[in-house]
Amino acid sequence: MWDYSDKVKDAFLHPKNVGEIADAxxxxxxxxxxxxxxxxxxxxxxxxxxxxLDARFQTFGCASAIASSSALTELVKGRTLDExxxxxxxxxxxxxxxxxxxKMHCSVMGREALEAAIAKYxxxxxxxxxxxxxxxxxxxxxxxxxxxxxxENHLTTVEEITNFTKAGGGCGECVSNIEAILQDVxxxxxxxxxxxxKKLTNLHKIxxxxxxxxxxxxxxxxxxxxxxxxxxxxxNKVIIALRGMCTGCLMADVxxxxxxxxxxxxxxxxxxxxxxx
Length: 277
What we know:
This protein has three domains: 6-122, Sufe protein. Chain: A, CATH 3.90.1010.10; 134-186, Arc Repressor Mutant, subunit A (Orthogonal Bundle); 202-275, GMP Synthetase, Chain A, domain 3, CATH 3.30.300. It contains ten helices and eight strands. The protein has helices spanning 6-13, 63-76, 81-84, 89-95, 104-122, 143-153, 158-165, 175-186, 202-222, 252-266; strands at residues 26-32, 37-45, 52-60, 134-136, 141-142, 226-234, 237-244, 272-275. The strands form three sheets. Strands 1-2-3 form a three-stranded antiparallel β-sheet. Helix 1 crosses helix 2 and helix 9 crosses helix 10. Mean pLDDT is 86; it is low at 189-193.
């Protein structure tokens, strides 16, 4: 039995904005009945202000899918399209007082329906479903979606990916591929750098460490919404602080070890990296 919040129960038993808008200005449709969840979102939009006047939905799915769809329509009404696009799946879950971990994919589906509806209204290309190869054949989940959802929600385990996308929740054959994707998402980008010099003065070593962190390590982390700050250098001990999405990450130790390995490769074999807590 799922541990639903009172808000989820109420939104499921008494959902708001159910149905279609006959003259809708935009319609976003995501999911598949075959995969167990489907959502069709209708929007009525003021042409002059770009503000959403009304939002309704039709969904096929569980209690969380219905509750998430109801919450989404309440959240977007009265907002401009740009304001609506700032609503993430975590906002939908928070509006409902939280969702069971295993049902977070319902909030992701709501966010995707909103993006699809607005893109269609603006005449923009729809999200490229096939931009990445299909990783999970059971639920038709692509590598691109796994990467995007992992970065947006800071997911670091296969179980979390399954909760948010269903990928890996069927036959299980894709689990190893999901693990490889996560490792790539949260690992440092490869660095093309010449081998470390044989001899270094203390000042040269400090300058080289600073240069590598600024030009080689930080860009890779920043590309995934993370960051690192160099705090101090004491002999061969390099003290850093993880910033951005790296803060509190379950894979922080992997990141620190990656930084240490890179500095040992390019500066000195005795480098030890410590991260401030």
